Amino acid sequence: SGKDKKGRWVWATITGSKENTTIITCYRPCEDTVDTAGESSQWMQLYNRQLQELDASNAAADEYNNVDTRDIMNRDLDGFIAGEQDKGHRIILLGDMNQDLSSRQRTKLTFGELCKRRKLYSALYAHEESLRPSHKRRKRVIDHIVLGSIHADAIIQSGQLPHGVGFANSDHRGVYLDLDSRPGLDVAAEDLATGRTRKLVSK
Predict the structure, then answer these.
(1) 153: buried, middle or exposed (CB in 10 Å: 19+, 13-18, 0-12)?
(2) What backbone phi and psi angles, to 5 degrees, belong to 173?
(3) pTM for the full model?
C-alpha cells in the first residue's frame, strides 16, 4: 500500500494466487483559477506545489503560465497505473474525477483518454445502460469505478445510489461494485463460520 507524494491518490495491492490487483482511490479537483480557488482548496494546494517544483527546476518563465493541476494529475496517474500494469497487476480505480468519460480537450489528457490508454472500462455500466448525474448541481457522471484486466463476468452487481443513501450529507451519489472475489481478485473468499447454538437458562 502507499500514497501519491502530493496526496492525490492512495493505493493497496491484493496478492492473489496467480495475479495481483492494485486498488486506487483518488480525488481530482474541479476546474478552477488562481482568482477563484479557495486558499486551502486542493486545487490551490496542488497549484502552489507545482510552482515550487518549477522554482526548484529553474523552469522557463512561460512554464509558469501553463500550470494545469488537473492535466498534471491525469498524466501522473496514467504513469502510475502504467507502472502497475507493467508489473502484471490488474487495476481497480475508484474516484471523483470531476470529469466524465466522454470529455475531450485538444492539448490535455482527459480521464476518458486515460482510461482508453490504460484499457480501463467502467464497471458502473455493467448493469446500467445509462447513469444519472453524479452531483446534485451537475449534469454529468463524474464519479467512477473503472477496471483493468478484470473480466466483466466477475461483476456481480454495480451501480449508483440515490442521493442521501449511504452518504447523507454528501452532494454526490454513492457508487458501488460487488465483485466475485475468485475471478475478480484471484482470491478465494473464506466461508463464514457457523455459530454454535447455545441454550439460555433463566432462573
Answers:
(1) exposed
(2) -75, 145
(3) 0.88
Q: Which residues of 115-146 are buried (b: 16+ CB within 10 A; e: fewer)?
A: beebebebbbbbeeeebebbbeeeeebbbbbb
DSSP conformation class of 128:
-
Beta strands of 136-181 (E only): which ranges?
Answer: 143-148, 155-160, 175-179
pLDDT in tens, 74-107: 999 999 999 999 999 999 999 999 999 999 998 9
**160-185: b or e for each residue (b if 16 or more CB lie within 10 Å)?**
beebeeeeeeeebbbbebebeeeebb
Cα–Cα separations (whole angstroms), residue 135 to 9, 47, 145: 21, 24, 15
- Whole-angstrom Cα Rg for the chain: 21
Phi first, then psi, for residue 135 (nearest 5°) are -115, 145
